Amino acid sequence: MCQEKECIDSCTLTIEKKYRLAEFFDMWWDEYIKSPTEPIKPEQYKAVNAIRTCRTEALGVDYYVCTECGELSEQYHSCKNRFCPTCSWKDTLNWADRIKNQMLNLPHRHVVFTIPHRLNGLIKSNRKELFNIFFKAAAETLKDWMDFKYKLTPGIISVLHTFGETKDYHVHIHMIVSWGGISNVTNSLQAIKGEYVNYEFIQNKFRCKFEDSLINYYKSGDMKHKFQDQIDFMRFVKQINDKMWRIHLEPAMEIPTEVIRYIGRYSKRACLSEYKITLIDGENISFRHKDYKNLDVNNKPIERELQLNYRDFFPRLLQHVPIRYFRIVRYYGVYSTKTKIAPEHLYVGSKEEEIHIKQQSESEEIYEIEDPCYCKVCNKHKLYIHTEFKSKRGAKIIMSKYPYRRRFDKHKSYAA
């Protein structure tokens, strides 16, 4: 019987949406691949197939029954692909719940590093290598600055994003940075007083670190490019020196639990939330986005709607599918896996704070939890019967003591 608390916590999150992305793929994907606008990569095929089969009979169904009233319920399996908009939100909440117990007892700041759009073409041809350079340059910039100015080692969580509001190519890194850290002299926990930062100094330091690594990568001979020679390449580097090396720091948040909302918002979620899809009409799909260049009377970005034909929408969306096995969330400084944080330096929040943060996070998405393990009529847990798969050869029933889906969850054997 499904009586453990973790069973209730792990039950699937069913979100009420007006439109599903899978519907649009079902309508036009098979037609699009006959003559795609852009070459389709293997990881993009995999992501689309996962989205189309997520929570369908193709991945399997768990059946539960109430031993009192006989009510039967079904639980469809999820694809667990990182790009799936249905799975990513639940995965993000679980990840944020785990990470909150590993935060330093310090204020934290949300930091965004952005590189010039002129680099987009080069990045698309060398995604893995340049993403690694970007991650390292951004983290080392802040680590070196805090070491030089305060003799501290901070905790840093970095998340790579390649998309903007309209899903165009916009490469940037969101960071959660402890505003302080472990003293390199006394090994004690110290906070930084004040929020002033010399932006120009940090921007130049970040640009120099990135460009030094970029030049070394070019000299290695492994870079895919169209430059005629090194002079042509250095001319390009000089052109990107001028502007758009942006760094944005938000005010420090006093307690780490407040940071959890940002961690969840900018971590593993898919680039397009299904809540933002406003219309699917024939060959066109429309979705809402924020226009940060135009603000309303409350100084908030105006919300607009963008309509795209499937031949424009698919390549725009799929260019953001993560590279297979590439880590888009990374940890640096004292948050690195190589570092063991002393228990006295960790933040321990109250139960009330945890409930408050969870309610704030959940309020950002409208959903209801359907627990297939629980009968609302009899107020008791249901009994798991079996898991059923349907294939071209017919239905296949697998009996198990525990739901088949959760055994796979434990071992991550079919996660993207």
If you had to describe this structure to a student in words, what would you say it looks like?
Helices cover 35% and strands 25% of the residues. The chain has helices spanning 5-10, 21-32, 42-53, 85-99, 120-125, 127-150, 199-219, 230-239, 256-265, 310-318, 351-363, 404-411; strands at residues 13-14, 61-65, 72-76, 108-114, 152-153, 155-163, 169-178, 180-183, 189-191, 246-249, 277-281, 284-295, 301-309, 329-333, 368-369, 374-375, 380-381, 383-391, 394-398. Helix 9 (256-265) runs parallel beside helix 11. The radius of gyration is 24 Å and the shape is globular.
Write the layout of secondary structure elements.
Elements: H1 5-10, E1 13-14, H2 21-32, H3 42-53, E2 61-65, E3 72-76, H4 85-99, E4 108-114, H5 120-125, H6 127-150, E5 152-153, E6 155-163, E7 169-178, E8 180-183, E9 189-191, H7 199-219, H8 230-239, E10 246-249, H9 256-265, E11 277-281, E12 284-295, E13 301-309, H10 310-318, E14 329-333, H11 351-363, E15 368-369, E16 374-375, E17 380-381, E18 383-391, E19 394-398, H12 404-411
Antiparallel strand pairs: 1-15, 2-3, 2-18, 4-7, 4-10, 5-8, 6-7, 6-14, 8-9, 11-12, 12-13, 16-17, 18-19
Would you summarize the structure shown here?
This protein has 12 helices and 19 strands. With 416 residues, the protein is an alpha+beta fold.
